[in-house]
Amino acid sequence: MIFQSVGSICSGIEAASVAWEPLGMQFEWFSEIADFPSRVLAEKYPKIKNLGDMNDIPAKIESGEIVAPDLICGGTPCQAFSLAGWKTGLNDDRGNLTLRFVDIADSNDKKRQEEKKSPSIVFWENVEGVLTDKTNAFGCLVCSLAGFDDVIELKRWPNAGVIHGAKRNVAWRVLDAKYFGLPQQRRRLYLMAGGKNFFPENVLFEFHTGRLEEYPSAQLTFEKEGHRFEVFREYTDCLYSAYGTKWNGNAAAYNGSLFIVQDDRLRRISPLECERLMGFPDNYTDLPGAKKTNRYQATGNSWAVPVVKWIGKRLTEYSGDMMNLDSKTNFLLARTTEIPGQGFFVDFGKDIIEIGAEYTLNCTAIPEVCEFKDMSAIVSSDAPEDIYISPVGCYGIVRRKQERNLKINPRLEEVLLSISSQMSPKEIEKRSRIQKRGRFSDPPTLQITEKEDTAPAYCFRGLECNRDVKKC
């Protein structure tokens, strides 16, 4: 398929440009309002205009102030649909930007029609939570893109699906970045739409020919760049935007997936390692004066570059409709909802789907051909000193685990207890009281004991002491 020009909405730090520019796509304009990502755009792409507020884009397209590109891409704010954002959906102004995204696509196609050009391709990324949003934001999005008169109401939208509508054809699929060469479990929803002569299911879905691969096991201890490393899993949990400020309170803090042991010291993942976890070039966000928190947030809010590149490559190779779902609706009867006079919706679930006797479709989060990397590929020995975790910090993680009755990676707990024992219990208690403890805190539940002629030992409700494996 021949197209070149791209307009990017909610651009962030431009994973789309990193993924697609090598494929020959030319970005005409960005739209980003956050300060630090805007700085990154100005540094990396000085010749591309940042339009700022996306709400102004329809008028700018229709007036001819900016190009009406071949492709519109964006990832409207996910906070309205994520657990971290309390899933407020369209009741949140950020969630309503999802519908403004449709307005931009409509204005773009209107302008392109005036210019005698084909309808644009639409690409949208977001968290899985949008599929279960109580305000049905996803239903509003896909039905608006398709041009349906009414919105389809579902309590849970499928991980994969297709809509052929009066205005556009739409397809979506959840994909997991850990199968695309990133050691990060990052499941995201990827949607593509286009005019009635474009069939996005041919881009997002694959003909299934073999067995889906499983993520392989790997050594959790290794040497690299002259240093000894230990990790707690082969891949991390999803990197989140607040990692820079909430590294010790998220679930990933307890399964160990965002911690690294380097030369017997425990630390967080560095900003450089986070960039590698997302597929960015090294030090992509390392601007002069940049704070680590800014880099963590901007990276965690972005897209997984290899997944987006995979989709872009399949789009550039698109040569027409190979699946012909219109003629196969009889085989998909149980999965198909007809919209009289307007089109149809096919629920592909999250499975391998047989389409008659002719072929089988892969609609899972795993591609037909996987690429695997483990944590050793992203670890760097030059981590900044201030991301190492002190004995007080290690103590605090275990204390919170006990107070909240949380599960913890057993090996991580051993490391936390070992490092905690490097400082006296009284000194840890003194330093830990500098900051106010959370509402779960209950000091009497954790007893600190000191024994004569022995190193400090920490008793956590009957857990074995970290010294000599004796009970206190």
Form type: globular
User: Mind telling me the CATH superfamily name of the largest domain?
Assistant: Vaccinia Virus protein VP39
Across the major sheet, the strand order is: 3-2-1-4-5-8-7-6-15-14
CATH level 3 topology of the largest domain? Rossmann fold
Number of domains: 2
Q: What is the name of the CATH class of the largest domain?
A: Alpha Beta
| Annotated CATH architecture of the largest domain | 3-Layer(aba) Sandwich
Helix content: 25-40%
Structure description:
The structure is a single chain. The protein is an alpha+beta fold and 472 residues long. The chain folds into 2 domains: 5-211 and 303-362, Vaccinia Virus protein VP39 (Rossmann fold); 390-472, no CATH class. The chain is built from 13 helices and 19 strands. It has helices at 15-20, 35-44, 57-63, 93-114, 137-146, 201-204, 251-255, 271-278, 292-300, 305-316, 391-403, 410-420, 425-432, and strands at 5-9, 26-30, 49-50, 71-74, 121-127, 160-164, 169-176, 187-194, 206-207, 221-224, 227-230, 259-262, 265-268, 336-339, 343-349, 352-355, 359-362, 447-449, 457-459. It has a 10-stranded mixed beta sheet, sandwiched between helices. Strand 4, helix 4 (93-114) and strand 5 (121-127) form a beta-alpha-beta unit. The chain is globular and about 75 Å long. The chain starts with a strand and ends in a 13-residue tail after the last strand. 45% of the residues are buried. Mean pLDDT is 87; it is low at 78-95 and 443-472.
